[in-house]
UniProtKB/TrEMBL annotation:
Transmembrane segments: none annotated. InterPro entries: Transposase_8, Trp_repressor/repl_initiator, WH-like_DNA-bd_sf. This is Transposase. Coiled coil: none annotated.
Length: 105
């Protein structure tokens, strides 16, 4: 009975596969990630093209873009604009008491 774990039935190994290209679990610096993301943001460039050029999975590039978008949104401090009524916007003098009693938005 033949076993699957035999080394080609005692003859030796018949085929050797040599893997070329980058190894797995590469460590990417923040600068490299930023370069890849910047390339994908150019007009007419697809994420798949950039991923192939850098030998990365497109899903990895999409993940980096998502993380960069979140970091950008988290770093922005919300700015609140004060509400100005039309009466106070038109005149340079402060509104009177009667004008403050009537809300206008």
């Amino acid at each position: 009975m033949d076993s699957v774990s035999d080394d080609a039935k005692g003859i030796g190994y018949r085929r050797v596969e040599v893997l070329t290209g980058p190894g797995r679990r590469r460590q990417w610096s923040d600068d490299d990630k930023a370069r890849v993301i910047a390339e994908t943001m150019q007009l007419g460039v697809t994420v798949t093209e950039v991923a192939r050029r850098w030998q990365i999975s497109p899903q990895q590039v999409f993940d980096w873009r998502r993380l960069a978008r979140r970091a950008t949104l988290a770093s922005k401090v919300p700015v609140f604009v004060p509400i100005v009524s039309e009466a106070s916007a038109c005149s340079s003098e402060p509104p009177t008491v009667a004008a403050r009693d009537t809300p206008t938005i």
